[in-house]
Amino acid sequence: MGIREDVFFEGGPHKGDLIFNLLLGFTVICLPLTVAAIVRALWLRYRITSRRVSVSGGWLGRDRTDIIYSEIQTIITVPRGLGFWGDMVITLKDGSKLEFRALPRFRDIATYIEDKIAPKGVKSVNTSV
Length: 129
Prior knowledge:
Layout: E1 7-11, H1 15-24, H2 31-43, E2 45-49, E3 52-57, E4 63-68, E5 72-80, E6 85-92, E7 97-104, H3 106-117, E8 123-126
Parallel strand pairs: 5-8
Antiparallel strand pairs: 1-2, 2-3, 3-4, 5-6, 6-7
Helix pairs in contact: 1-2
């Protein structure tokens, strides 16, 4: 029998990001941001478990990236949408980066990930706007 994997968070980007970008879509200059928010809302999904961090995205949600906690070096979070959602960048030990856009509960998720990797001496940078 395998090790149990408990799900901490599973879902897509925050709905406020889509609403905000749809409102910006009324201006011609912000149409690319609106299209990007619609694509994120349709096909981007995050899954944070007790064993790994997964991101499913790409065209029709066909691309999937999984990382385990021992690969994480740093976590950077930036609040957006008056702090209701935020962006998070996870830097891996090999220097590659995994970006989470419009992540709901981003503070709780960052704390959860930090707790999972804290014994290994992770550096965390939280910035405020």
